[in-house]
Design a protein that fits this description.
The chain contains 14 helices and 19 strands. The protein has a six-stranded mixed beta sheet with strand order 1-5-4-2-3-6, sandwiched between helices. A five-stranded antiparallel beta sheet has the order 15-19-18-17-16, covered by helices on one side. It has a four-stranded mixed beta sheet with strand order 8-7-9-10, with helices on both faces. A hairpin with a 3-residue loop joins strand 13 and strand 14. Helix 1 packs across helix 4, helix 3 packs across helix 5 and helix 13 runs antiparallel to helix 14. The longest helix is centred in the last third of the chain and has 22 residues. It starts with 8 loop residues before the first strand and ends with a helix. Bound molecules: magnesium ion. The site of magnesium ion (MG) has 6 residues, from loops.
Length: 430
Amino acid sequence: MQLFGTSGVRRIFDSDLLQLALKIGLAVGKVYSNVVVGSDTRTSGQAMKHAVISGLLAAGSRCQDAGVLPTPTLALAGKDFNAAVMVTASHNPPEYNGIKLLNPDGSAFAASQQKQIEAMVSGDSFPAAPWTEIKSGGTYGGAVNRHIEHIRRQVPSGLRLKIAVDCGCGAASVITPYLLAGLGCEVIALNCYPSGLFPHPVEPVEANLGDLMAIVRSSGADLGIAHDGDADRMMAVDDKGRFVSGDKLLALFARETGAKSVVTTIDASMMIDEMGFDVIRTRVGDNYVSEALKQSGDFGGEPSGSWIFPDNSLCPDGIYAAARLVTIASQQRLSSLLDTMPAYPLLRGSVSSKGIARSQLDDRLMTLRPVSVSNVDGTRLAFEDGWLLVRASGTEPKIRITAEARTEARVRQIYNDGIRAVQNNVSEAR
Ligand code: MG
């Protein structure tokens, strides 16, 4: 049984998920003797967290409850423990919940660690500890302040900027506005109170951030910051009220932090390759970026908004990233920095994967005559003037198609070629 996707467990909350939380708590508690637990703001968060704690304690582990906080804030607290358990469904809708398991260095559990927990949960054969070995639980206070102090040691204060912040009522509500105010900024807070009834979908994409863009424009703010539900992600709006693409943020952070070697995912723009960095490409998913950064790389991220500064943590840290971006914007207007970067038209879409035969699809893609092919994740075809990525979604029964090229006409052509290759393949397979 595979419980864990690329970002842990994630499902619509129901009694099955609650029971799973208890079993995961028991399994983690058998392997790790001292664990810290936290949750985001979802309505099911408290119930889920107490199920995890119940399992951990029953297994004989020590356990402390760090309260409602972002994943990167819990990851920092996790340095003092053997493992951390975060109850969150990240950017998914409010009816979802899930569990992320973290190591003391902030990285997500590796595949081997996940398999060990999965096998224990699936086997369902591990007993609770004898009553004499059960420890008492406790609370872990001060995780938020510790994270704020950790960040403030790394960025300058006295940043007199006006910043609009949209936390989507997620976990960042308890930290980002206070951190930025502490750095000297005037903060315009939008949806910065913890609530599991998210006022808009909590994924920080352009379609969900209309209010933030409007407030940046109407208030004359220097930039806007947005997070997902557990604030491992951060996206931005520039001083002209324009949503900043994740590809541009990736390039901006890499350039402004002086990185030489950059780790990013296979679907990120070719812009990063053209800016002179050594680029290492991984599968799609921030845990793969984090894993690669353990070996090498000065900075890593993926265009969906996960930014990993290895000197800070191996957990994507949307709060730290916000502080770094504000620091950059205090030196030069964000819009003028962004406008100096190359940008190419990029198209992303998907079709149903029903009836698709992988090998036939690859044969058909080869007829598009690529210059080179990568199979890091799906099939990525490189052309002289662009590229096409065709890969199966990790979370839905879909084939995702991404294309980028130097001109609008060419990207449309590459994208349509990709769609046609997949759709012809479906009709042949039927
Ligand atoms: Mg997240």
